[in-house]
Amino acid sequence: MRCFHFCKLPGRVMGSRLLRFTSVVIIVLLLVAGALTALLPTIKDDKLPNSRREAKTQSQSALDSFTLIMQTYNRTDLLLKLLNHYQAIPHLHKVIVVWNNIGEKTPEEMWNSLGPHPVPVVFKVQTVNRMRNRLQNFPDLETKAVLMMDDDTLVSAHDLAFAFSVWQQFPEHIVGFVPRKHISTPSGVYSYGSFELQNPGFGNGDQYSMVLIGAAFFHSGYLEDFQHQPEAVYALIDETQNCDDIAMNFLVAKHTGKPSGVFVKPVDIRNLEKDTNSGYSGMWHRAEHLLQRSYCVNKLVNIYDGMPLKYSNIMISQFGFPNYANHKNKM
Amino acid sequence: MRCFHFCKLPGRVMGSRLLRFTSVVIIVLLLVAGALTALLPTIKDDKLPNSRREAKTQSQSALDSFTLIMQTYNRTDLLLKLLNHYQAIPHLHKVIVVWNNIGEKTPEEMWNSLGPHPVPVVFKVQTVNRMRNRLQNFPDLETKAVLMMDDDTLVSAHDLAFAFSVWQQFPEHIVGFVPRKHISTPSGVYSYGSFELQNPGFGNGDQYSMVLIGAAFFHSGYLEDFQHQPEAVYALIDETQNCDDIAMNFLVAKHTGKPSGVFVKPVDIRNLEKDTNSGYSGMWHRAEHLLQRSYCVNKLVNIYDGMPLKYSNIMISQFGFPNYANHKNKM
């Protein structure tokens, strides 16, 4: 049977049936197509860069990038200002915001509405306002390195990129921008302080025995270790709402048998406390803050049955930056 | 037989024989004692501090002290000025002076006449005036660490004590005060230089890939390693009377797979060239000096079949010295 183009059937009757049939088929096909299209994810123009960026982010080796953990309380304006800055730091993988504003909604909606963002930001809502909330072993953590920042501290991208490269060379240390020390006294009671305190007396110059974690890189493994400390450590931190950073330095020093920290001298570090509209000015303004920290040092020595902190006088700066001749000396 | 006190013998005859015998015995004993005393080393008053110091020096662990190796040519006045300074550096074990003034007497006599000295100084008389004479594996070396200094360079004791402590934390590196770098060019030909050369282009700021051994600490084991390099390396150094330090950096970089050097920023380093009466002003004033060094870099890449030097931008300073607040930053 010779047939072309749906077989020309004799007569008008056959023709109209075919026509109806074909129309129905076409309509059904269109409906199916429409349904399928509706089920596909919406590809908006502005999402395209995001998915490209997300693919890039995931491919960053866990060793070549870091996670920013920033705890925040009562300074959301500063938090958002800082997030705009930190979200674009080179080698940043993800941001974890530890939300200590109990009962208050996170700015997640606003954050998303102002997307796209260079990296994912997760808001971890807390149930109790605790200083040590930031030292949980967050499942969101995918990188070996953590950058921990206080929610009122701005460190330049240059400083952070350099300090990250230093951390990669000293991964078992807390590599950061704020050095502190303890000193012994003849009574055996320790005191905590900074450079205004007497030098520990090991040769020339000063020494530091701690690097504060409010502006520092450290290995994410230490967050896991922190979950296995004596109960008394948690009790101390909760009692003082302070000293989590001193405890971390004790932990790291015990673990390595070396000075816990490596101090990187920052070129540009700023405290934005004064810029907040909240009126809240941070724990370190409390009258008892420093006394508490000395108290903590001595308590931790009891808990750990010894003083594990060790002194260092190594100060690291970036060669040829910002001044290309910053190494020059009298010759 | 009852006998007391050499047995009293009856009669005068026995008594005088005994007396003579006893006298002879006493005289012989005195002579022997006298002879022994004469054989003992002369204990002079001024040697006492020395022997106490020497005992102390020998008890210094090989890890806690270093040997200064200083090669000298035609600048004995500077040498002696520098020796007065360096002989008193903390943790110094011994000084080895590599005497490149062929045929000329060393100042050893004068040195000894001006004793006592804090540490032993040995003058190694050379037979040929070679730049690489200082890189021999001297049997006089007892310490793990070597401090190598040019005979026209004065580095403060503070800087040296600090740099030694840094070396102890980085014993496989050349820890010193003079950073240099190589750069690649599109043609594949390398060039040698300092900060005035373009940055190698790895992020912000500059990088260094060598630390010169004319003012640096390094492990004495590298002197042993240096004896087992390809002949072409020695030929190159002899041909140029230059580049022994570049060769050492290649050696160390190959050995560690890391940047060969760690740069410690000196507080007080001085070149005393102008102070010499000899009129001799050092190899680096030769017109071809820098070109030679670029030449050496390329030759060494050929000899070692690759470029082993790696970049670093770590600059180390001493925390809290000389300014106790030298770590302070804008906060």
TrEMBL record, chains A, B:
Keywords: Disulfide bond, Glycoprotein, Glycosyltransferase, Manganese, Membrane, Metal-binding, Signal-anchor, Transferase, Transmembrane, Transmembrane helix
GO cellular component: endoplasmic reticulum membrane
Membrane topology (UniProt): Single-pass type II membrane protein
Entry EC number(s): 2.4.1.223
Compartment(s) of residence: Endoplasmic reticulum membrane
Gene3D superfamilies referenced in this protein's UniProt entry, alphabetically: Spore Coat Polysaccharide Biosynthesis Protein SpsA, Chain A (3.90.550.10)
Glycosyl transferase domain residues: 66-321
Catalytic activity: 3-O-(beta-D-GlcA-(1->3)-beta-D-Gal-(1->3)-beta-D-Gal-(1->4)-beta-D-Xyl)-L-seryl-[protein] + UDP-N-acetyl-alpha-D-glucosamine = 3-O-(alpha-D-GlcNAc-(1->4)-beta-D-GlcA-(1->3)-beta-D-Gal-(1->3)-beta-D-Gal-(1->4)-beta-D-Xyl)-L-seryl-[protein] + UDP + H(+)
Enzyme class, UniProt record, top EC level: transferase
Chloroplast as UniProt keyword: no
Cofactor(s), names only, from the UniProt record: Mn(2+)
Family: Belongs to the glycosyltransferase 47 family.
Name of the protein described by the UniProt record: Exostosin-like 2
Organism annotation: Chloebia gouldiae
Lineage of producing organism: Eukaryota, Metazoa, Chordata, Craniata, Vertebrata
